[in-house]
Write the structure tokens for this entry.
Amino acid sequence: MDPASFPTVLRESPVFARRFAEGLLPPVAARVGRDPLVIRPVHGVGRYGGTLRRGFIGVADRMNGARLCAGPDSLLYWDFRCENVVPNIAWGYELGDGDRVLTLRLRRGMRWSDGAAFTAEDIVFWREDISLHPDLGASSTALLAGGKPVRVEMVDALTVRYVSAVPNPLLPGLLAGPASIGGLAGNGHAGGGGYAPKHYLARFHPAYTSMAQVDRQAREAGFAGWAAFLLYLNDWSRNPDLPSVTPWLVTRPITDPPWELEANPYSVWVDIAGNQLPYIHTVTMAAVDDLEGIAAGAAAGEYDFQDRHLAVASLPTLMANQGRGGYVVRHALGRDLDFGVRLNLAYDADRYLGELIRNVDFRRALSLAIDRNQINQVFFLGSSIPTATMPADDSRYYPGPDWRLKWARYDPNLANVLLDRIGLTARDQAGYRLRADRTDRIRLDYQAVLAFVDFPAIGEMIREQWRRIGVDLTVQTVSAEAIVARAVGNELMLSGHHVGTDDPFLAPETFLPTVLTSYTGMIGVPYAKWFASGGRDGAEPPPPLALLTHAMSLYRQGLQAGEAARTRLGKQLYKLHADQVWSIGVVGFGLSLYGIYTASTKLGNVPAGMLNTNRQKTPSNALPMTFYYR
């Protein structure tokens, strides 16, 4: 909005008005600051009050709250069409010096939730003392340019400069999206976020006090060392004392359900009439065991807004119970793949099986032996599209219809030919192919969590499909915490989840080896470390994966390129990924990832439709801070 049209008078909720009258808070204008973030509600100005109810699954489900209640809290964000980067926590930005320098300007008078000023020091502190610290570093390579770290410099209290060694035109988009630099709420636990409250965290950091002091503090709090303790303190979902800039603040942690949040008295968001947002004061999230529990709660009308973990299979029940439950069901087709098999190309716990996974014909055979139509009908009610790891048809990076099912048509006969060709001809009495030493059958391991879709059950179906080509599969249901630890430890072989990306340059995490310490980095954490460190850490991809090194070169070129060249490079990357089957795309562009949402009929300003994209961290783009009870 044009700053000239900003409201001239600010108003606050009755709760905060009482606290002000009691001397517990300064005036609302002093809390919001001189540069509010003005939001135009989708339907109209709402009213204050109420509690929003919703469900979550387990202590690792932090994005459940972060996507709804964090704002988003990224420095920049995408406009409603997801076409252009716009200011968000930051007041403005500009690229200069041939796209090598990004200058961010912060909002005057903006404050952390404890009243401390939010300044450039909080960004520089995060970069120098958390992001670049070897014991705390973030889980992505988003602030690498030309293989060199991006420098973050403080110009003055409200101005920060990001200086790259090479042109870095996509840096604003990375700050706006789901990368590790895209906000504290979703990324602080892993050392990401893009900023952190220096005034709060510095006393727990050895750069600002003694190592003996911070280690003693950690031990007293029950942590093995200061680094683990500081990352816990920087975890928005677990630490209610963490100063934040989100519209809602955690008051009861995710580890002690129900997970509860309350409105931030220092929220910088206001509506066009000058009312400080959010309208709804409290959010409470009930802990639920699984997808069936989430669906049952939604169908019973126990949730006022639920989008995460609503499996497509629950849609008929949700539709049938709308009247009785007092809610409406909305749909938003996704821009990403609903399901695929993540392959750990660096797997080496069993050297022989690791070498098989690194054999392209073995990966192609596995993909050809998956009956995508069967999986689509059973688990997605036919709402998704069978696909290799590809973008949507209207993506600028889509290489064309010939690539939609590259090595992804159901053809078990060709799969058997490929497996025979690489020498896997010996079989046991049950028809399973034997290892080279014939001591055991070839048995792969698939692990998955219950989230969005019944990923373990899809694994069971794939197990039956792969039996037809003589490959055995064990299927395990594991917790989100366990799967993250195993992925980071390079212990996972295969996992079922969503794969691919809608943009290989802005969100490469499940498409290329760019993630160092996260489950999304399953494509090969040791390789990601090798690329990020310039060969000083991790492991170089071996000769069978030489094209992975080539792909990373194309990716880095794309980060510096203009739009036309970047589009061409992106198409090449998709072709390489699909032809080499670095992940097995199965179905996509359906409803499983935030594509179904239920909203109470009493809830106002809920959009009847919205873009469903990871880049906008849906449902953040629905502007939950403007929801209200009629």
Remarks:
- The chain has three domains: 1-71+246-332+594-630, 72-245, 337-588.
- Residues 112 and 563 are 37 Å apart (CA to CA).
- The two ends are 26 Å apart (CA to CA).
